[in-house]
Amino acid sequence: MSSHLIIVDRSSDFKFDRTDLEIITTKDYIARPDAVRTRNPKIVNLSRAYSYLGAGYYCSLLAEARTQKIIPSVKTILDLSQKSIYRYALPELEELLRRRLKRMAQPPEASFTLYSFFGSADDRRFQDVTRRAFDVFRCPMLKIQVRLKDDWHIHSLQPLSLDDLRPDQEDHFRASLDAYTKATWREPTEKAPPRYTMAMLHNPKDELPPSSAKTLQKFIRAGEALGIAIEPIEKKDYLRLAEYDALFIRETTSLDDHTYRFAKKAEKEGMAVIDDPNSILRCTNKVYLAELLRANKVPAPKTVILDKAKVATIEQDIPYPIVLKIPDGSFSRGVFKVQNRGELEATAAALFEESDVILAQEFMYTEFDWRVGVLNRQPIFVCQYLMAKKHWQIVKHNSDGRFEQGSFKTMLVEEAPKAVVEIAVKAAGLIGNGLYGVDLKQNDRGIFVIEINDNPNIDTGVEDLRLKDELYKIVVREFIRRLDGRTNGEAGRG
């Protein structure tokens, strides 16, 4: 006799010839514990439904009370009852899914459904996905709906019953059951509960995101290694923000959109937050930055704040070519180089339609810009960003909406010029103790701060080229430091 016990609603539900298995109905298992003949049974609950307080639910509940091993457990039943609960496991499963799809010579072209029987996939190409899903949710039969919208994602996880089996699936189920009941019983993988939870705000449609989808997964894995659960969220999740301990903004920030509102709400809730609202406020406005650097004697290109009247005399202060900027541009947007009076007046007139004041700045051509990443007043990475081909900026925006970027060189902090790093750290410290990307130019006149970014790029194969996974852990550790400080009565955000 097998050590396995199968629970079904009716004996007729189990149509498979397995005389070595003990079959019992939900009714008998609940009301007649003495009816179980198998000693120390390993129970597979194949009830038609696992709804809360239903017969299937009670079978799993009573098995645990009787110290019997059963799948699915009550925890699994509850986890799978709502997407808001099981979504914590989706990033890992989706990463496996996407990696598998990328390796396929002929991947699916549209949304599809996977069926998992004891972790065995009906489509063997996705065996690693269903295996991991079974490790996390020890559910005998699982329906995994996969959808394509911008990228592949798991839309839902749904427990199934024997009633749901199609005739063409019966052989696969039988083989999967045979393999499972003849294998050594293995408890599901249990991860230690996370110390903290963090929301990572991103925009899948952001054309120049500070971190790619692949990079977000690296942050998630770093969080797992350090005991903090990181979940990607989007604009639509605003009302859920208070569920988390921390917020990490990984999309382009602006004062007049949801990113600033998220930061403000997170701060109000007492969460650890990067970017904090003050950093967004200070970094996104180039007028503020220009005045801040000037007042603190941080070297920067000569900059003049222009109103419409000042345009007439700007050549007296800055020679051509002159760089004109709108105050809240990002990623080289809203930045224009003018060569003469005609271009100056035309470009300025267009920019004044968006802002009452603009910036005029002396032009400094260099083959590359320095970018120093600073976190809590400490440098964490250094890059050289080269100008786009045949262009004077790192990013060249074309009229058709496309863009081109120059190449890069990444180095360890200690490999970069000491003066560059020191000036960058000083400039970032004027903003706060968050995460910043300080852009600098270096020429025969010295080193000059061009810009301070509140949500600097951290991306796979670029900023992480030298530190690899350690870079992501550095960022996560800073969140943990702030959260630990909060629980100890110290300031938890910066």
Tell me the CATH architecture of one domain: 2-Layer Sandwich
Kindly state the number of beta strands.
Answer: 23
CATH topology grouping of one domain: D-amino Acid Aminotransferase, Chain A, domain 1
Question: Could you report the average pLDDT, rounded to the nearest whole number?
Answer: 87
Name the structural class. Answer: alpha/beta
- Order of strands in the sheet with the most strands? 21-18-17-22-23
CATH class of one domain: Alpha Beta
Q: How many helices? A: 14
- Which strand-content bin applies to the residues? 15-25%
Question: In angstroms, what separates the terminal alpha carbons?
Answer: 63 Å
Envelope shape:
elongated
Keywords: ATP-binding, Nucleotide-binding
InterPro entries: ATP-grasp, ATP-grasp_RimK-type, ATP_grasp_subdomain_1, RLAN_dom
Organism: Skermanella cutis
Protein name: RimK family protein
Task: Walk me through the structure.
This is RimK family protein. Pfam families: RimK (PF08443), RLAN (PF14401). Keywords: ATP-binding, Nucleotide-binding. This protein has 494 residues and is α/β, with parallel strands linked by helices. Among the domains are: 4-78, 3-Layer(aba) Sandwich (Oxidized Rhodanese, domain 1); 83-182, D-amino Acid Aminotransferase, Chain A, domain 1 (2-Layer Sandwich), CATH 3.30.470; 196-276, Response regulator (Rossmann fold, 3-Layer(aba) Sandwich); 302-363, Dna Ligase, domain 1 (2-Layer Sandwich), CATH 3.30.1490. The chain has 14 helices and 23 strands. It has a five-stranded antiparallel β-sheet. β3 (42-45), α2 (55-65) and β4 form a beta-alpha-beta unit. The radius of gyration is 29 Å and the shape is elongated.
